[in-house]
Amino acid sequence: MSAGRTLPRILHPQSVPLAGTDAHLAPVPSDRLQPEWLRRRFAAPPAWQPEHEGDGRFLFDREPAQASVLVPLVQRETGLSVLLTQRTAHLRDHAGQISFPGGRVEDHDADAVATALREAEEEVGLAHRHVDVIGQMPPYTTVTRFVVTPVVALVEPRFELKLDAFEVAEAFEVPLEFLMTPANHRRHRYAYEGGEREFLSMPYGDHFIWGATASMLRNLYRFLSA
């Protein structure tokens, strides 16, 4: 396939006009944000549909690549929090963006879970012994043509992170309750010659969570609300 670009990059998403929020939608009830309830939900999922399956158009015309991310739900005394990373600015794909630990599937990976666990350990030093995988979400296709499988896990909090300085600028946590409250979900509309793009954001402090990560979190919201 040729490598012709079909979409403009969004380099400064914070400056893209706000089209609205989703404050009219109910947050996920607090009793559903407990470890045992989440285990039961993933063990016996209801009928539901993800809101976002991916971007309809792509930055590059290239073959899709399989990838996997870990959605780490850290079991803090104050409630579950989501461990996220900020990618370094020099990376080729999604530079500087907020993301889950994860990456491309390697030939030696047994499955999506193996990829997510390996990448989380390589990127942030999250050891497997602290991670209890409870399920997977439907794949999401990014504008860069990665077909990403989110692997959801409960993480016991006695871990020590060691960041890969080449890939990860920072690791931080966001309360799951905040992310599962649609009043914190913002919709943006970016116009360009020939069309427009829409994307979600979930700003938290100095961190601007947007794009694929926000879309996968929105799918998690739909799954837990179903």
Structural class: alpha+beta
Continuous helix count: 4
The CATH topology label is Nucleoside Triphosphate Pyrophosphohydrolase
Biggest sheet: strands, sense, closure?
8 strands, mixed
Number of strands: 11
- The radius of gyration is 17 Å
- State the share of residues found in helices, binned by percent: 10-25%
Number of domains: 1
Element order, helices and strands? Answer: EHEEEEHEEEEHEEH
Shape: globular
> Any idea of the CATH class?
Alpha Beta
Q: Look at the structure and give the mean pLDDT.
A: 90
β-strand percent reads 25-35%
As residue ranges, the low-confidence spans are 1-5
CATH architecture: Alpha-Beta Complex
CATH superfamily: Nucleoside Triphosphate Pyrophosphohydrolase
* N-to-C span: 39 Å
